[in-house]
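ok here's SnoaL-like domain-containing protein, seq below lol
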Amino acid sequence: MKQLILLSCLFCFNLLQAQKTIEATLDTWHEAASTANFEEYFSSFAEDAYFLGTDASERWSVKQFKNFAKPHFETAPAWEFIPVQRNWKISLVR
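and the structure came out like this:
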């Protein structure tokens, strides 16, 4: 029973750490946009990532999105994200 409780605690701790990491990554990403830091903003993207915009038809490769965004990053803020509420669902992948 003690092992089960210990494993449960470790699992919860890992989920909390994952959530903190996600929050910090998003905050850094949003800060880069608000200060028009093009390099920092796009360093968060994987080479084969796609950016999904607010419209259902907006699906850009990183290269396409960089081309679109570059003029917006010439003056601060490029754009500003102000989180109101974040909801996370984290699951194990096998």
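fwiw The longest strand covers residues 50-52. kinda neat tbh
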